[in-house]
């Protein structure tokens, strides 16, 4: 791995950890770490209080746990494909060199 | 960044469906042509789609104290352009709308337009403009960052158009604050991750990138072919 790549990975880690450290001890009840999508929905209800969402999702994950399951599944599908691509090509690459 | 189900008035939902539909259909035609002409690039298509799957499932904390997730559209945009990326984004958005109630079916057109079309189009443009002027890794990083920012600015504009209260400018500023500010650090993160994965493809399969016309064929030697 090149030095550049180490710096890039460090950058990702720092950017992820910084908010958790900055707002350490604060949680959803204080209005932190909620989703931006929901915040936009709240803003719509605030500036246009009479607006009624005219369509409901057909199905919602019955709980936060199930939602995490499906999000994890989504990431796993992606990671499998990427891992396969890189694993397959890395083996071929090592074979040739 | 997703507009929630039911939160766009029917007229706007229809407009964005129409605009996105045209691009997605064009993208499907392009995609079929690409697969027919260069079947060997198929794995990179899967890779770009998979990258979007992962990144859009990572809800990350941002320095503004709210959470959002990257879109992953930058990689596809750089490799295949915005139209094909729109097709990939449609798959991801359908998954999220149907299984996660994240985004929505009525707002699908608008969400495809911001995440699958405008963001990637801006990333694609940045890539074209900077290519050859900087080290290609950083060009890709910047393209992904701008693709991500472009997405959030577009979503803010879409919401401000639908809810110009009290006027368009104020609404745009308000929605922009909710989305774009949260997204500034997340976009940088997405850019770095996109750059990392790009470099790894460059190391292992530069021939595939050369096939797509992204790098000089001369530089494509030494991969795993």
Number of strands of chain B: 2
Number of domains of chain A: 2
Shape descriptor of chain A: extended
**CATH fold-level name of chain B:** Arp2/3 complex 21 kDa subunit ARPC3
CATH class of chain B: Mainly Alpha
How many domains of chain B? The number is 1
Overall average residue pLDDT of chain B? 93
Helix content of chain A: 55-70%
Any overview of this molecule?
The complex is a heterodimer of chains A (97) and B (225). With 97 residues, chain A is mostly helical. Chain A has 2 domains: 44 residues, no CATH class; 37 residues. Helix content of chain A is 67%, strand content 0%. Chain A contains 3 helices and no strands. Chain A is extended, with a radius of gyration of 21 Å. With 225 residues, chain B is mostly helical. Chain B has a single domain, classed as Arp2/3 complex 21 kDa subunit ARPC3. Helices cover 72% and strands 2% of the residues of chain B. Chain B has 7 helices and 2 strands, in the order ααββααααα. Chain B has a two-stranded antiparallel ribbon. In chain B, helix 1 crosses helix 4 and helix 5 runs antiparallel to helix 6. In chain B, 60% of the residues are buried. The model of chain B has no long low-confidence stretch (mean pLDDT 93). The interface between A and B is large, with 61 and 75 residues.
